[in-house]
Amino acid sequence: MASKVITVEGTAYWAKVTEGTRDRGSKKSEGAKYDYPEATTIQVVVDQDSLKTVTDAVPGFKPNVTDNGIEVKFRRNWFNEVNPAWGGAPDVMDENNEPWPNDKLIGNGSKVRVAAEVYDTRYGKAIRLMAVKVLDFVEADLPDCAELPEGF
User: Fold this and answer.
1) Number of other residues whose CB lies within 10 A of the CB of residue 17
2) What is the pTM (predicted TM-score) of this model?
3) What are phi and psi of 83, to 5 degrees?
4) Which of 69, 81, 112, 116 lies at a CB distance of 3.0 to 4.6 Å from 127, suitable for a disulfide?
5) Long-range CB pairs of 139-148, under 8 A, 24+ apart, other chains included
6) Per residue in 68-102, pLDDT tens?
């Protein structure tokens, strides 16, 4: 069966969607609680229509309910052994379809449109992050680094 692509719009949180910002994963062998592969991820707070788009495409999908609203997490593993084209960074662009700078952080609160591929697994349907379009950019609010005490 051919895969299908869905699109949803919402408010981005914890966007790690470029090579320069991707989630580096974790390994139990290095002391982490769980093994997670390197991936690009974005959490999107969606409205009811966008949530319905996801749940219709992926029956049994369970969104996260947060203080910000109903959140859908999109993920794309950095490496895919079955098909390398399914790994790596998704397409990321600004509102004018210009490529997004690799090291530019998408701040929490940015408005985005996300495209995700729906595909079959042995456990049922799943979604893979394909593209992110930043519709209304909010600069990332990064805290200042603490200064070392004098004489350290």
Assistant:
1) 28
2) 0.84
3) -145, 105
4) 116
5) 139/105, 139/107, 140/105, 140/106, 140/107, 140/108, 141/107, 141/108, 142/105
6) 999 999 999 888 777 777 888 899 999 999 999 98
